[in-house]
Specification:
Layout lengths: L8 H14 L1 H23 L2 H20 L12 E5 L2 E7 L3 E6 L4 E6 L8 H12 L5 H4 L12 E8 L4 E8 L3
Antiparallel strand pairs: 1-2, 2-5, 3-4, 4-6, 5-6
Helix pairs in contact: 1-2, 2-4
């Protein structure tokens, strides 16, 4: 049964704030969405020609930086890469964002991200482990496979094949890497 929500907008806002306070990854994603919306609104409604030119320069520099990246980073997803090997990349997603099934032809588990789901970026992964362990992890610590063994009920490690322009193969579901 679908939840009906709150009749009073204040109660809905309080419930949203409670949810975000208790879900660090959702809070990071909501903040990113809010920043993006603010940026769009500023550009559409308030920016001057001088500011638009400055924003254009920032965007051009960002595009040049992405074009100079190598490997999977060049695709611009922003996902945290646990391990990269030739044209394979290992990334992490919340298990609730992943469909997993057994492929009898290949003899292994396969997975896909659910619609509109994303793998975790570095900030989201750091927040996940801070909530679970109370410790702040560095990017290098997050690349250690033994860190994930205790959290495979909540996380899924995915393996994608890619070329320089796009993901070219689906994802194997990895129990360990």
């Amino acid at each position: 049964m679908k939840r009906k929500g709150y009749n009073d907008i204040k109660k809905q806002i309080e419930a949203n704030e409670r949810y975000l306070d208790n879900n660090g990854i959702a809070k990071i994603r909501a903040n990113r969405s809010r920043l993006k919306s603010t940026c769009y609104r500023f550009i559409k409604e308030f920016s001057t020609l001088e500011e638009l030119n400055e924003i254009k320069d920032i965007i051009d520099n960002k595009i040049k930086g992405v074009k100079n990246m190598s490997g999977f980073e060049k695709l611009g997803f922003g996902w945290f890469i646990l391990k990269e090997r030739d044209y394979d990349v290992f990334v992490v997603a919340l298990k609730k964002d992943v469909n997993v099934w057994f492929n009898t032809m290949r003899g292994c588990y396969m997975s896909t991200l659910k619609e509109n789901a994303k793998c975790l970026n570095e900030e989201e992964l750091k927040q996940f482990f801070k909530e679970k362990t109370g410790k702040d992890y560095t990017a290098e610590e997050l690349r250690k496979p033994n860190l994930y063994k205790k959290y495979l009920d909540d996380l899924a490690i995915l393996n994608f094949g890619f070329d320089n322009k796009q993901i070219i193969s689906g994802s194997d579901y990895i129990e360990s890497f």
